[in-house]
């Protein structure tokens, strides 16, 4: 979906396809047919943006066979879909029964992360619509925090500097500009937007910026406007923003609240949980750990890294952090000039929701994703942006 900002520039809105992960190219093509096109049709649009996730095997197949890459581009056009951004955070296995910590591998100290992201950038340059010259790739925030010492930090810095050089060369070759955005996430080396400033500014390149994920930012109890102001003051760009909402529990000491939270503790994804205390931010790596008793103070509100559907907050006594999303969006695109032009709804946890909330059919899932996009569209038009055909 495209929107005209009051300054005359175009802002793109997509939804991320990691919600129905496919490991192979054939799986990606089926995904376009079975999920993405039906969402577009529900919205009554001739064109819909998707934030494509290409697992390593699918990306490699496209790199190795230019004919298959041309075929993917043709299939996108045939189904009324367009791609201006890729989600390069998960490497593979995102549809596994248990993802948890594996999503952070390989990290930026591993040469394979550089190779994978380079391939994604080259593929994106080939997939961008003819009238679009800028693409973005979001990526993991360096590494999970453990086993990440000075040597790994130096390796990651070198890899990102090399990537920036490759992106410069890619633009010279294709005329398409691709930027990569580190996505701060709780528990990672770069957990917050503040943590991102030093490694990004050390690179001294416009090619690498920050992807603000509004669920992650909320989970870490960051002040939205202060976070954006700090990035701006440091000269750190926000090439991409992921629109998502975290799980919020105002009174986690109450038995009924803990029971409600327990329904969201599931075995597939990691749900880092945080609370803000007088002594600072406290947290656990997963929600069940927080609920286990004593690991996390329960006298102050908890937030969990569980991407809940934007349009359907959990029932009381829980809520979502949609207000944080609203504030971030206003700060990024509500001003005289948009500070980001690529927005991606990223609710990948539909099938990890409590059983009674999960969509039982493809049609119900498409209905939910379409409803999220409608909500995001309305937020944008309320900020003065105009939806384009």
List keywords for this structure.
single chain; 389 residues; alpha/beta; TIM Barrel; 8-stranded parallel β-barrel; 40% helix; 19% strand
CATH superfamily: Divalent-metal-dependent TIM barrel enzymes
Uncertain spans: none
What name does the CATH topology carry? TIM Barrel
Portion in beta strands: 15-25%
- The string of secondary-structure elements, in order, is EEHEHHEHEHEHEHHEEHEEHEEHEHE
What is the total tally of β strands? Answer: 15
Please give the radius of gyration in angstroms. Answer: 20 Å
> What strand order characterises the main sheet?
2-3-4-5-6-7-8-14
Which structural class matches the secondary elements? alpha/beta
Subunit arrangement of the protein: single chain
* Basic shape: globular
Notes on the protein architecture:
There is one protein chain. The protein has one domain: TIM Barrel, CATH 3.20.20. The protein is globular, with a radius of gyration of 20 Å. The chain has helices spanning about 25-45, 55-65, 65-80, 110-125, 150-175, 195-205, 215-220, 225-235, 255-260, 285-290, 320-335, 360-380; strands spanning about 1-5, 10-15, 50, 80-85, 135-140, 175-180, 210-215, 240-245, 245-250, 275, 280-285, 300-310, 320, 340-345, 385. With about 400 residues, the chain is of the alpha/beta class. The model has no long low-confidence stretch (mean pLDDT about 95). The longest helix is centred in the middle third of the chain and has 25 residues, at about 150-175. Strands 2-3-4-5-6-7-8-14 form an eight-stranded parallel beta barrel, surrounded by seven helices. Strands 11-10-12-9-13 form a five-stranded antiparallel β-sheet. Helix 1 (about 25-45) packs across helix 2 (about 55-65), helix 1 crosses helix 12 and helix 4 runs parallel beside helix 5 (about 150-175). It has twelve helices and 15 strands. Strand 6, helix 6 and strand 7 (about 210-215) form a beta-alpha-beta unit.
